[in-house]
Structure formats: C-alpha cells, structure tokens
Write a structure and sequence with these properties.
Elements: H1 2-19, H2 25-37, H3 44-55, H4 58-68, E1 72-75, E2 81-86, E3 103-107, H5 113-119, E4 127-131, H6 137-143, E5 151-155, H7 161-168, E6 175-179, H8 184-190
Parallel strand pairs: 2-3, 3-4, 4-5, 5-6
Antiparallel strand pairs: 1-2
Helix pairs in contact: 1-2, 1-3, 2-3, 5-6, 6-7, 7-8
Length: about 190
C-alpha cells in the first residue's frame, strides 16, 4: 500500500507540473479535481490542496507565503494588502505581487542593503519604517529610488552624511522621523 501511495502522489505532482503549462492547464486541473473527490485515493487531500494553489492569483500566493513566514499582513477595508511587517530580506520577493502595498515596516538584522535594493523597485510604497536593521548607507541610498516614497521613519541604525544626501535626493519624500545618533556632517546633510 505504501508503494501505491507513492505512485499516486507522483501522479499528483506530475499533474501539477503539467498544469503550469497553459495549454494543458484545464485538463490537468480537472484530473486533480477528480483525484481530490475520490475518497478512496490516498492522495485526495494533496490533489485538492495543489489544485487550490494552482487556481490562486500571484497576489494570493504572495499573501499565503508571507503569512506562512510569520509576516504580519494588514489590509484596507477593501481587502487589499497595504502594510507589511518584515524581518527578512527573502520576504521581499513577494512585494511585486502586491499592487496596493503602501507601507513597509522593517525590524531586525535579517534586513540588509540587498532588501532595500529589492524594495527600491516598488512603484507603490509610500512609507518605510526601519528599526535596528543591518542596513548601511549603501542601502539607504536605494530609498531615494522609490518614486512614491513620502515618509521615512528611522531608528537604531547608523547613517552618515552620504546616506542622508542620497535619501534627500528623493523627489517625493516629504516627512522624515529620525531617532538615531547623527554626527555633525550628518546634521549638515539634513539642512
């Protein structure tokens, strides 16, 4: 019976692979649905789960992956994802599938310059809050590339005059909240 389960599961995975090809998607999904309805099939739950995932939009997949990773996902009254609380750079790969994302909260050493580089590709993020991360001046420079950035909240990181000047280059930034030490050059860069 164990061998039979392995074969049926292998069939489910083969159908999933086939379903990713648009030309056979309907037929593969229909086969997965038949397997899912078969109470005698040891892989019915797997077939049901995979068929559900295949029918998801990219946005739904992104939300599911972020929530599974422990990310706090906040929605507006229409159900659109607008805010994320992130702690790892890897979580950012999903933001391209969130068309209404406007606020990103970052906290912890799992956030690096590479994460800010990924974020800089967003066209919708209007506010960023960074606290106690591993981000340096190089990373802060990427924030200046966010076309919709209006507000930046910052604490617990060191930033030099170079990083401040790059951030100040943002044409859309209008509000900054700073709770970190600055040297004289940093203060001069702000003014």
């Amino acid at each position: 019976a164990a061998g039979e389960i392995d074969v049926v599961e292998a069939c489910v995975w083969a159908l999933v692979e086939i379903a990713w090809k648009q030309e056979f998607q309907d037929e593969a999904l229909a086969a997965l649905d038949r397997l899912a309805k078969s109470s005698e099939s040891p892989a019915a739950k797997l077939a049901e789960s995979e068929a559900r995932k295949l029918r998801m939009t990219d946005e739904e997949r992104a939300i599911e992956a972020l929530e599974a990773a422990g990310v706090e996902v906040r929605r507006n009254s229409q159900g659109d994802v607008t805010n994320l609380n992130l702690s790892q750079d890897a979580q950012l790969k999903w933001i391209r599938h969130l068309p209404n994302l406007s606020f990103v909260f970052w906290r912890g050493n799992g956030i690096t310059n590479g994460g800010l580089e990924l974020l800089s590709k967003s066209k919708t993020v209007r506010a960023v809050s960074i606290s106690d991360t591993a981000v340096t001046d190089v990373g802060f420079a990427f924030l200046g590339d966010l076309p919709a950035l209006r507000a930046f909240y910052f604490s617990g990181n060191q930033i030099s005059a170079f990083g401040i000047r790059r951030l100040a280059a943002s044409k859309s930034l209008s509000r900054v909240s700073w709770k970190s030490k600055l040297d004289l050059a940093g203060l001069e860069a702000i003014s």
